[in-house]
Sequence to fold (968 residues):
Amino acid sequence: MVTPTLSAGRARHWALLFLLTLLCACQLSSKPAAPPAPALRPGEVFTGANDTRAYRFIELPNRMKVLLISDPGTDKAAAALDVNVGSRQDPDDRQGLAHFLEHMLFLGTDRFPQAEEYQNFIASHSGNHNAFTAFEHTNFFFDVDSQYLAPALDRFSRFFVAPLFTAEYVDREKHAVYSEYMANIRDDQRRGLDVLREVVNPEHPFSKFSVGSLDTLADRPGRPVRDDLLQFYEKNYSSNLMTLVVLGREPLDQLQQMVTERFSEVPDRERHIDPITAPLFAPGTLPQQVRVQPVQQDRTLSFAWPIGDTRPDYRGKSLEYIGNILGHEGGGSLLSALKQRGWAQALSAGQGFDYQGGALFNVNIELTQAGLPHADEITQMLFQTILRIRDGGIQERLYREQQKVAEQRFQFREQAEPIREVSHLAGNLQDYPPEEVLRGDYLMERFEPAQIKALLDQLTPQRMLRTLTAPGVATNKKSTFYQTPFSAEPIPGLQYEPWVNAGLNPAITLPEPNIFIADDLSLKPLPAQPAQKPVLLDSGAGLHLWFLQDAQFRTPKGDTALSLRSPLATDSAEHTVKTELLARMVRENLNEFSYPASLAGLSYQVARNGRGITLRVAGFNDKQSLLLERMLNALRNPQLTPELFARISFEYRRQLQDNNQRPPYELLISDLSTVLYRNQWPDSELIAQVDKVTLEQVRQFAQELLAHLDADMLVYGNYTEADARKLGDLVKQQLLAQTQATPAPAVEVMQLPAGRDYRRTVPSPHDDAALLLYRQAADNAKSTRAALGVSAQMLSSDFYAQLRTDQQLGYIVMSTPFPVRDVPGLVFLAQSPVAGPAQLAKAYKEFLHGWAQRSPDQLLPLFERHRSALAQRLAEQPKNLGEASERLWQDLNSGYLQFDSREQILAAVRVLTFEQWLPLFKRDVLGTDGRGLWQAVDGRFTQQPLRVGEPIDDLDAFKTARYFYTFP
Ligand SMILES: [Zn+2]
Fold:
């Protein structure tokens, strides 16, 4: 695959609240060659064909660059401010200072001195906020109910005018940074970066530690860290280095006024930042071979070459041209050749880390067990591929094809969530001329063979850093901050000479023309009265075909989803494993053929679901049936070879084993599902089955599975009814012809008993402890779900404030609604480097006890505010076709055949009174009625285990003794 350019190399530290929902949107950068561009007037920007928002660029008198976005229909307003300063600017003896500043900045300003003011304001108006610190950027962003943009900007703008950096919080936030550091200490990506820091040129600022520790941020005699913080802020937080993006429903003129009034006061300190001139690798240190021992069982062979700054070439994207061919997965590709030998299972290529002055080009190859001893031959094949491109592979045909795809992607770009959009565009505004802020990622309008050749000439054995990451590789030292075992040594001439003269490999060829690129981007005519909800077109032969022509987004895209459900698929751990292996092998069968589809803007999925297998195709509708037909055929006639089976089952087993290495809080969330669903099995049971199952059994099982099915299908998007029927027929002919319609199995969710709490300890090698408390409501009435939703909303920021901010128990602290199907529940969760499960449980209880002490008079105004915020959230409309489709698909899978689950809950929230809510709050949240499940990871705190509730020793026996809710 092609490495997403913008996110790969920038290590981001999320300071935050909503880490589960807010992950960065990866942009596949590529570009359009528009017809001769219409002249823009000052302040205008290039927009896509489907973009209905209004944009204006302005520069404030203090030289802050601002992009205003007006979207009268938006539910959420959002803003982001990016400062072109990051860990690069950390003083050598204050590593992590930029990141520490990011944490401290939010804690009070001249006009809003309270530390929690901003967070509370945002949270109580349906918003989220977050920030990240990267090498050259610090990016702050939020969203909020669109009525509250102005007061939110009142608060936000003061961070850049008059922050307090209140002394009493310094210590607390230092510990927050420390918790964040510890939470990621076993993260292989961070550990690998720590090694990279060690091998780069010590003169290059990338060699510094960007997160910060108690030591790097310690007060020193005569030099408290706060003094350094103030100095850093005053030096670097200058309006001329800032970009701001504000999206709201107000007209542009009004947005402009709002911004000008609030941000013109940000001081222009006339800070200038030069490109970095020190080379990323010290002269004479390449070629170099690094070996790294991971925590998980990763086996990766990766290559990195330092190259010049690629940003000036955003119109040509010559490097991306190379990445697209090296990262190709179709027939004749490097990956295909490696797979034929059984040596690799995935490959990505593209620009990684970049900065003002340079960048890295990376190729990462995920090895199989069998590939591990063949690193040198794989290296040889990589250089054969590079030579293949250099000798005759710099072709206008290939470039134009990439250009066309990028152009289509830009023209029909889906609207991202406002909060992601503003954060991303604030970064773009630093990198591109203002008129290209939207289009810059996609521009590809200059085919420059000489430049491509010049880049290829740098991708030589003599200039490479090669890193082999695998369990048990020989190492001789440990990295400073993450204690990653590694070794680094020069690659001798004798070893790399053969790669210099790699020659051509007949198995490796250039990509064929891509048959999946959409030719027809026209919109199908709408009927006079377009339907609002899907209608059932057909219900024969085991297929329920639902259809809705999109009338809202009017874009040449669609989503075709098929859920194949069988009573056999997941009724035991054994069958679950067989279904999983089958889905994985089918996916692998398809990969070479369908990889070009993913390049052409079609995504597809073949995956096990809770009751069977899902097939899904989304993106441009033009060529979807071509892909779907192939997918159906692959499922009906899978090529289940011994080599593939060995590779896939080994990989599946490895992933199951590595699950246990995940951060403790993730482990607990996953384990909660295992406990609650009747048909979910612990990883240990799945592993035992993987060890037993044979290829012959999977072949047999595939026949049995497909012989009895019930299928739900949804066709939504730029389709007519006739198109949908054709797709339905395809499914019937290709897949269901010999299938006997069989009712789908029910989904069963455990009903926790009243009057009792349970506990369960989950083993983990991590040092941090974690505790999850799940409270299940006593019933699943709509009013109960509504009440729990409001309660969750009320508690969330207070839980965070008490456990994370005040008590400093950990970096990951959250409370969130946790509905399982239609069973309402609530989760409290924290991961801690400083407290064990017993202490965390005490903190949870004190928290709940504090809420139990509040009088109805205190609760009433909170209730009203959060009930209305929740109603706002539920009333939010989908922002793009993908989101709309996902909602419909979820409803269909959950049996809401009126497609109105959201409306139903919204109606219940709207009529909920305080008098109805209060007893439910006491019963379901404060825990006077049992139905609690405590799950813990002990970490290094084995001396203070959890004592609350009755232990669950045998999960199977526990499940057998419970009642279950049943959903069709
Ligand atoms: Zn942070």
In short: The CA atoms of residues 747 and 967 lie 5 Å apart. Residues 13, 15, 99, 103, 180 surround zinc ion (CB under 6 Å). The longest strand covers residues 344-355. Confidence is low (pLDDT under 50) at residues 4-36.
